[in-house]
From TrEMBL:
Protein name as it appears in the record: ABC transporter ATP-binding protein
A GO cellular component annotation in the UniProt record: plasma membrane
Alphabetic keyword roster: ATP-binding, Membrane, Nucleotide-binding, Transmembrane, Transmembrane helix, Transport
Domain of life, per lineage: Bacteria
Subcellular location: Cell membrane
Species: Spirochaeta lutea
Main localization, broad class: membrane
Residue span, ABC transporter domain: 10-231
GO molecular function: ABC-type oligopeptide transporter activity; ATP binding; ATP hydrolysis activity
Amino acid sequence: QAWPKLRGEIEFKDVSFTYEKGEQVLEHFNLRVESGQTIALVGATGSGKSTIVNLVCRFFEPSSGRILIDGRDYHEYGQACLHGNLGYVLQSPQLFSGSIRDNIRYGRLDATDQEIEEAAKTAMAHEFIVQLPKGYDTPVGEEGGLLSTGQKQLISFARAVLADPALLILDEATSSIDTETELLIQQAIQKVLSHRTSFVIAHRLSTIVDADRILVIDKGRIMEDGTHREL
Ligand code: ATP
Ligand code: MG
């Protein structure tokens, strides 16, 4: 592994952000997250939850202000380092054309088939995969177009489990998944969240009650910040 392992401490310092086509979403946003904590982001649709985690993933750059990881501006880390330390399951999950196995393996080129299956089992993806005629060798199609959003999220989740990153982002990871699978996933998520910094975005209370901090977001601002018991 060519990159240093980060502790996963995150800080937004006075971050403002405006989409190229759109209004300002964040204005002087400040947030400090200790290493190993689980942060749940809740709030109305359009309040800025995905924007906040997408900035951590560096899919977008702050218009002003800085994002620090382990006390250093995140531009100081190479893409490989950032992505080696970061796992995410996005609201619109991105896969590349290739097999399911390739998509789970992703950056972990050394992973064995057995490790890939173990990760898929932890992520509750194994069952649907083995029901496909070609199993793990099933091509996912252009951008994963042959799979449902829920299935793509499960594969992304398996990828994150395999990568074992210091920082994990789950953006409504269960939104497109049926209730039965969701119950199983809840348990998997709890297991996977421990020992790493995590941002979790979910509408369902069950996913967020165990978070170390719940941030209630409204119009890009933190309106409340505390544990489930406190709020
Ligand atoms: P949801 O609960 O529906 O996922 P959210 O809290 O994740 O909502 P964001 O996706 O962060 O909300 O959106 C915040 C604001 O930014 C909204 O007004 C939205 O319309 C706008 N927005 C989001 N993505 C883009 C984009 N790619 N380009 C322009 N505007 C965007
Ligand atoms: Mg969102």
